[in-house]
Amino acid sequence: MNEKNQLARPFALPLPTIRRYPVYLRCINEMIAAGETHISSAVVAEKLGLDSVLARKDIAMAGVPGKPRRGYPARELQAAITAALGWDNSTDAVLVGVGSLGNALLGYRGFEEQSLSIAAAFDASPEIVGKTIHGVKVRPMADLPRLVKRLNIRLGILTVPNDAGQPCADKLVAAGIRGIWNFTSVRLSVPDGVIVQNVDLAQSLAVLSHAISAKR
Amino acid sequence: MNEKNQLARPFALPLPTIRRYPVYLRCINEMIAAGETHISSAVVAEKLGLDSVLARKDIAMAGVPGKPRRGYPARELQAAITAALGWDNSTDAVLVGVGSLGNALLGYRGFEEQSLSIAAAFDASPEIVGKTIHGVKVRPMADLPRLVKRLNIRLGILTVPNDAGQPCADKLVAAGIRGIWNFTSVRLSVPDGVIVQNVDLAQSLAVLSHAISAKR
DNA sequence: AAAATATCGCTATTGACATACCGATATAAA
DNA sequence: TTTATATCGGTATGTCAATAGCGATATTTT
Lengths: 216, 216
Known about the structure:
- The structure is a homodimer.
- By secondary structure, the first copy, chain A, is an alpha/beta fold.
- The first copy, chain A, has 9 helices and 9 strands.
- Chain A has helices at 3-8, 15-33, 41-48, 52-60, 74-85, 100-107, 144-151, 165-175, 201-214, and strands at residues 38-39, 72-73, 91-96, 116-123, 132-133, 136-140, 155-158, 179-182, 195-198.
- In chain A, the strands form 2 sheets. A 7-stranded mixed sheet of chain A has the order 5-6-4-3-7-8-9.
- The radius of gyration of chain A is 20 Å and the shape is globular.
- Chains A and B meet through helix 2, helix 6 and helix 9 of A and helix 2, helix 6 and helix 9 of B.
- The first copy, chain A, binds a DNA duplex through helix 2 and helix 4.
């Protein structure tokens, strides 16, 4: 029908669309659980409080053809979005830095939904190394390169103090990591080909506290 | 998503600028600690790996006049950015949902830098209510309205399971909260005037896992 | 079978932010 | 004193995503 879409598919997904995909996916899962066989973009938009055109465009980018008056086939759409997110097969990750935040992430149920499992945890402190936190044994940093290579792990979760951020990132990169989920406040410098996704609580809080303090 | 409307009143600070302010602030603090009395936007940009023009524009928006060849007066700039973020006087917050994530946030040292202190914590589970976590006593949900009003608290931290997200948000709003730091995956619907800032781990992870799985 | 309607899919416009460019000015050097 | 230079401040351009509008099409209804 339309060869343009086919050709442009693999990397044509805008970043904001990818960010919204988990939200759509959750909604679609709920609708399937409720017995729906077809998903209308308008209904999804309504449920999520999004603009109907935006939802339609995002969903259309998944590549599944929809039918007017029926919507998109539910299962196929679910599979396509799951695949686009890379959540269709399990991803192993290592976690570096078992402080309060690292501890919480180790205990966080909910990553399974995204097919993410933390295969190993590392810490520099001898007091923590050797302990088992939420079923994961904490190993010394020296073991990191070997383990990452042996298990062919591509994702690293960085939950160390700020001053250890860059050095630990370097170690992860050297071990062959492809993506870093960065929970520190430092801006990491990594070589091309390594992807960093920042979760900076300070940045997020900044917007809130500015808005709250500005309006009074 | 539509917080632009709220902030358009006294200071028209762009949202991305506000998000970058904590990063600048950290850098400025370090430079002051190193003995600098004047801050050059070019130096800040260099240190942070940002575009020099971007840093200059962001810093200029703080409202402190700088001098050519010298830079911006360090202390004044520090004070201005701190004030713009609303971090100049202490903000009290309540935390709702003492699960693994809520637990971690209660124990997280580092909010003091942003003048945020968690004044009270609430949970629906009778098993948790009454316990003291990291020095904060966990109270029943029924106490929320009274306490929020009495302490005049404006910020709520939402770390409950997804299905409890909207109901708890409603309770916070009813109690008079002005801003919600939303760690759930649900998109909250709140009345105008209440600001929601989402920290959705699933969204963040989506970008990473998509990128990692796409390139191979 | 024909009309009505809901939904998809495409293109154009808008708007916000980042980037680039250029002039102004204060400090330092000659 | 004069010249050079680094830095600030404003204006203009480009880019990307959100929004709006319109035509196409399949399903339902009469």
